[in-house]
Amino acid sequence: MTLSNTERKIIENSIRDVKDFPKPGIIFKDITTLLSDKEAYGVLMNHLYQRYKGYNLDYIAGIDARGFIFGAALAQMLGIGFVPIRKKGKLPYTTISEKYSLEYGVDEIEVHIDAFSAIPNARVLLIDDLIATGGTANAAAKLIKQAGASCLEACFIIGLNFFDGQKNLKEITNVYSLIEVN
Ligand code: AMP
What we know:
Elements: H1 5-14, E1 16-19, E2 27-30, H2 32-35, H3 38-52, E3 59-63, H4 66-78, E4 81-87, E5 95-101, E6 106-112, E7 123-131, H5 135-146, E8 150-160, H6 165-169, E9 174-181
Parallel strand pairs: 3-4, 3-7, 7-8, 8-9
Antiparallel strand pairs: 1-2, 4-6, 5-6
Helix pairs in contact: 1-3, 3-4
The structure holds adenosine monophosphate.
Adenosine monophosphate binds near residues 26, 63, 66, 136 and 165.
């Protein structure tokens, strides 16, 4: 199931473009204006619920930090658990971690080693607000596998098509972006 044209317009119109943030040349897709718009937030969460209610999921894994907002809300709607995938150094218990490349240098994300262990071969949906180069989501999908679970799909509100992120991620899991930006 994908968005209707009306739903797509409502969500698209609620996302704010901020030029030159956090540095010159970047157009930052600001989803705080989507969250504060009750109609758009409602359309978004209803769509995610309708799409994923039949997937027989065990967990939603959300990426630090905006993936926590939609991910945690969706997990509650679906009646399943939520697992945070966090930037290095934030999770208190034993973790497994994965490094990934940024434009300059490397970054690292982590998940608790036992995050999915209550359910053998747990079925997981990965969520973040946006995919650009796909480095973050790729590392997150690998972590889900290393933690003994299976990543059924990676879902993003926005996919930036001028990067290869979605194409690369499709080699390891299904990818669904509600809004494609060309
Ligand atoms: P990437 O690993 O390159 O796919 O970057 C994805 C991560 O960076 C996500 O967690 C996004 O929230 C954030 N991000 C990257 N580019 C943008 C952008 N233009 N606007 C908003 N967030 C972005």
